[in-house]
Amino acid sequence: MKTSLNTQILAGAVLGIVGGFFLRALPADSSATAHTLYFASLVAGIFIGLLKMILIPLIFLSIATGVANLQAHADMKRVWTYTLLYFFIASSLALVLGLAMVNIFKPGMGIHLDMFKAALTSAPPSNLSLGQFVQMLVNGLFVNPIEAMAKGEVLPTVVFAMAFGIGMAMLEERVKTLRQLLNESLDIIMRMVSWIMRLAPLGIMALLIKLVATQNTELLSTLIKFVGVVVGSTLIHGFFTLPLLLWLTTRVNPIFFLVSMRDSLITAFSTSSSSATMPVTLRCVTKNLKADKRIAGFVIPLGTTINMDGTAMYEAIAAVFVANLAGIELNVIQQVIVFWTAMLASIGAPGIPSAGMVTMIMVLQSVGLPVEAIALLIPIDRPLDTIRTVVNVEGDAVGTLIVQKLALKNDIPSIQTDL
Ligand code: ASP
């Protein structure tokens, strides 16, 4: 019997987690552990490498052709407006929920920062003020496209591709051949994505074996209440808020949505990188959810780097947690500052593992909290990064369907009936 790729991916994820726990049970210096970890790293490296290989051409082609084709239909302005509006509303809902949860459960109260003196003295040197961060963000937008693409930088590639797409749309018939060429190139790249997906079950298994086997869980249990608030809030946003937003605007069945996005969500969980997951996300949204390719080609690459609900929420919760540890009570105005800086930090964070940790510094600084506390958060970041990345990716897919419904007034074809 031939099992579907979906089932294989799920099986890969389950085997990876079970295998990881099995390795933990073996003595750390056993040769079985060393060999398994070696092969897992090798396979994981190939899988991530392939996703990264395809990422930049995919972003350029999907945005340039998406924008060109939309502009031709004079729908671009509406798509822009609804996309940015959706990003803002979804992140705000995530932030409000995160701040409410952390204020209700108050993790960190009663634990004192000086209990972690050893960890804190090894804190990385850091100073990233809000001003510097905004400057960095803006400067990072306009970069020589060859340089940006060579370095795999998503945001400047998105900016260049958009400008290119607009130019192509304005020149209309004169660039008919190029438009066709790029559309066809995109089809080829999507075909390559489907080849890479064949490796996904193994790649995901390898990534999860590594993740589970090498995690330090001790600190995780010390900080159990904080971890609980982060996980709880992220799950509420992912399983309740986002599906509800989707259902209210498009009437798409949330369960069908989540099942259709399964490959992408599992890839996000195991890679902790929305950028690496982007090819899979685009494939799930256009193939399983039958989203309009022009909208998906615009919203997914843009959202991958600027729309991160899970990251925004995490940064706000972590800031209040650090305040509690330090015995500082943040007043309402300070929490509003946390809200805005966490939103900005999530926009600026690239879609790579632990990116949120770097921009976190700015959030802490914005309300005068000790930046050294990062040293406490870093060791537990990898496990928490898994689920916030899932929600970051889910938010982009939800956004695609919502924008499609609102901007094109399209009913989303055949979605409910496929269940
Ligand atoms: N890993 C996250 C992502 O790729 C970013 C973060 O660190 O929050 O979406």
Written description of the protein model:
This protein is 78% helix and 0% strand. It is mainly α. The protein has a single domain (5-407), classed as Proton glutamate symport protein. Helix 3 (76-105) packs antiparallel against helix 10. The structure holds aspartic acid (ASP). Aspartic acid is lined by residues 272-274, 308, 311, 349, 351-356, 385, 388-389, 392.
What compounds are bound to the protein? aspartic acid
Q: Per CATH, which architecture? A: Orthogonal Bundle
- End-to-end distance, in Å? 23 Å
Low-confidence stretches: 414-419
Number of strands: 0
The chain-level structural class is: mainly alpha
Roughly what is the average pLDDT, rounded to an integer? 88
Helicity range of the residues?
A: over 70%
Helix-strand sequence: HHHHHHHHHHHHHHHHHHH
The CATH topology turns out to be Proton glutamate symport protein
Highlighted features:
mainly alpha; 419 residues; single chain; globular; binds aspartic acid; Proton glutamate symport protein; 19 helices
SSE blueprint:
Blueprint (H helix, E strand, L loop, with lengths): L4 H21 L5 H42 L3 H30 L11 H5 L8 H10 L5 H6 L3 H17 L5 H38 L4 H5 L1 H27 L3 H7 L1 H10 L2 H15 L4 H14 L2 H17 L6 H17 L6 H12 L7 H4 L3 H28 L11
Bound molecules: aspartic acid.
